[in-house]
Amino acid sequence: MPSTSPVKVLDKSGQEIVSVGFDRFGFNSEVPIDALRSLYLRSHYVVTSTSDKVDGDSLDPDAEEQQHAKFTKGLSAYQSKSIFYPEDNSISYTTLARFPPVKLLAPSQRKRVLVTGGAGFVGSHLVDRLMLLGHDVTVLDNFFTGSRTTVSHWVGHPNFELVRHDVVEPFMIECDQIYHLACPASPPHYQFNPVKTVKTSFMGTLNMLGLAKRTKARFLISSTSEVYGDPEVHPQPEDYWGHVNPIGDRACYDEGKRVAETLTYGYQRQDGVDVRVARIFNTYGPRMNPYDGRVVSNFIVQALKGEDLTVYGDGTQTRSFQYIHDLIDGLICLMNSDESRPVNIGNGDEFTIGEFAELVREIVEKVQSEAGDRPSRRVQIIYKTLPNDDPQKRRPDTSRAKESLKWQPRWTVRMGLEEMVSILAQSQKVLSLTFYVRIGTVITGCR
Ligand SMILES: O=c1ccn([C@@H]2O[C@H](COP(=O)(O)OP(=O)(O)O[C@H]3OC[C@@H](O)[C@H](O)[C@H]3O)[C@@H](O)[C@H]2O)c(=O)[nH]1
């Protein structure tokens, strides 16, 4: 069935994407793309009140709402709506009266899934998928870089539980699968408190592996392409040991994830814990914190605000970008497969950062022109200092994922960017991006 959404996306072979996921390894992860879209819009579905409101509730006649509804056609009954009052900078939240339909699974098929970091960018998309599929989901998050608003649309659902908890402390729960994602992932965030980053990687993983050992749950850790450091082998296969500066600015994350992998395989060898290791390459998509400092969100936000795009260094360093739904497909597939070796999950489409800045600028201009917006000037590309130890090139060798998981990315970088830009442009219209981030993430100096 074709998608009802006006956002039409084609995969790498030109086929329209109407659903994501697949039935593999005895686990069916397929859901319609429209159902997911309605969810990633929901947490930011805020309309701005007008000054002629009656009893504090009447809204600007429908223009803004219609804009939102076009993304959620057929699913708007499940949207909550909050109202922003610019005159006194306040917001009136509403809760959902009705949740979107989730699958009814037989008890033998229904998994009890723990997602640490489930209120983060990747975690919240995984939670949406698992919830729609009918599983029992518990989210642990300390809201250090994650935000309640990313999963608030599930709060109150009988299959869902949200727990504020820092994984550096032990946690007990009965579960079948653990997706251990908790850790700041953007370089400015993980370098903000490097001791905490190492502590989260080491102690958080130790605690979650202890839980997996006790409950016999299958354990998947989100590792990273950063375990390869500034690689001397290109593209990077899983058996490459990497090139990491152990005392540099990035070491808290790179070495943290390396020791987390070491612990994971220690528990496998010593205690027979059933483990999965996903090495995630650069990922982007809706719900990325617009101000988390990573290149995709930086460029999109800068271009939408009419600011110049900041390329660090001379822009010749490369990255390969995957869209969030491909990553979630890969993670679910890995969790349910028999592959216990590390697996790269990423998209092989490699860009220099300079080329990428031009691509983002072009896509933002296209989205603006389709919406009838005419910026007063063309944004420029400007150059800033390259951060220390910034990897010069990065591209995944995904042969293992193709062979073992029969997984490969479906979204082109352009398709994913067009969808993300449309959604961010929409949010920007409804309320200023400055406010948008305030209802999202606030970095705290937790220890
Ligand atoms: O505004 C910006 C931001 C970033 N950049 C550059 O763009 C490249 C990508 O930077 P990002 O911060 O998005 O991501 P990095 O590749 O450095 O790190 C990422 O690696 C993989 C994941 O595990 C993590 O999400 C993150 O650590 C870097 O070369 C960076 O210097 C810019 O040129 N301008």
From TrEMBL:
<comment type="pathway">
    <text>Nucleotide-sugar biosynthesis; UDP-alpha-D-xylose biosynthesis; UDP-alpha-D-xylose from UDP-alpha-D-glucuronate: step 1/1.</text>
</comment>
<keyword id="KW-0963">Cytoplasm</keyword>
<keyword id="KW-0456">Lyase</keyword>
<dbReference type="InterPro" id="IPR016040">
    <property type="entry name" value="NAD(P)-bd_dom"/>
</dbReference>
<dbReference type="GO" id="GO:0032580">
    <property type="term" value="C:Golgi cisterna membrane"/>
</dbReference>
<protein>
    <recommendedName>
        <fullName>UDP-glucuronate decarboxylase</fullName>
        <ecNumber>4.1.1.35</ecNumber>
    </recommendedName>
</protein>
<keyword id="KW-0472">Membrane</keyword>
<dbReference type="GO" id="GO:0033320">
    <property type="term" value="P:UDP-D-xylose biosynthetic process"/>
</dbReference>
<keyword id="KW-0812">Transmembrane</keyword>
<dbReference type="Pfam" id="PF16363">
    <property type="entry name" value="GDP_Man_Dehyd"/>
</dbReference>
<dbReference type="GO" id="GO:0042732">
    <property type="term" value="P:D-xylose metabolic process"/>
</dbReference>
<keyword id="KW-0333">Golgi apparatus</keyword>
<comment type="similarity">
    <text>Belongs to the NAD(P)-dependent epimerase/dehydratase family. UDP-glucuronic acid decarboxylase subfamily.</text>
</comment>
<keyword id="KW-0210">Decarboxylase</keyword>
<feature type="domain" description="NAD(P)-binding">
    <location>
        <begin position="114"/>
        <end position="420"/>
    </location>
</feature>
<dbReference type="GO" id="GO:0070403">
    <property type="term" value="F:NAD+ binding"/>
</dbReference>
<dbReference type="GO" id="GO:0048040">
    <property type="term" value="F:UDP-glucuronate decarboxylase activity"/>
</dbReference>
<keyword id="KW-1133">Transmembrane helix</keyword>
<keyword id="KW-0735">Signal-anchor</keyword>
<keyword id="KW-0520">NAD</keyword>
<dbReference type="InterPro" id="IPR044516">
    <property type="entry name" value="UXS-like"/>
</dbReference>
<dbReference type="InterPro" id="IPR036291">
    <property type="entry name" value="NAD(P)-bd_dom_sf"/>
</dbReference>
